[in-house]
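In response to reviewer comment 3 from the previous cycle, which asked for concrete evidence that the modeling workflow produces usable outputs, we include below a single protein chain processed end to end. The sequence was submitted unchanged, and the resulting structure tokens are shown without manual editing.
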Amino acid sequence: MTLTELEAQCQKCKNCVLGETRTNLVFGAGVPNARVMFIGEGPGENEDLQGQPFVGRGGQFLDTMLKIINLDRCKNFYITNIVKCRPPKNRDPQESERAACMSWLRPQIELISPKIIVCLGRIAAMTLIKSDFKITREHGQVFEKDGIYYMAIYHPAALLRDPYKRPDTFEDLKALQELINSVCPEVYAG
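The workflow returned the following structure tokens.
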């Protein structure tokens, strides 16, 4: 199966109520065989309207931050969310919704085969790293599971709301850059 085929199947998904209220499926974007993958919690209003992940204010801020460490979704990473449909009023995705979407995220991760997964925010980290993840204490730390390195940083929307978290995130991005250089330096080739 290819990512395109998986996305086509996901378009038909009605595994939870989010599929009934979405404008567009927000499957993912970027380099399909990227060594680095970013995963957030769920699409917001702009993402739902455009069918692309992280295209609103938070996504634009994320792109700006990632350029500092030479990451670009058109060149060397892939980005998606735990849930592929917008939760109403941008609420946190419920556990049952996250569980329903794992049937899409797991094969998506397998097809992309990243060496590093960066969770954007607490919900993604709790879903992918460990259920009791504390973003304020564990952001920037590296966890290894099944041959993949995981790290979580603050969600870009949280950084827009609270600029005092930005210096921590800058340090986390430097740590991510070091991890990339040690685990998959080919990310920066070309």
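Residues 35 and 114 are 4 Å apart (CA to CA). We consider this sufficient to address the reviewer's concern, and the full set will be provided in the supplementary archive.
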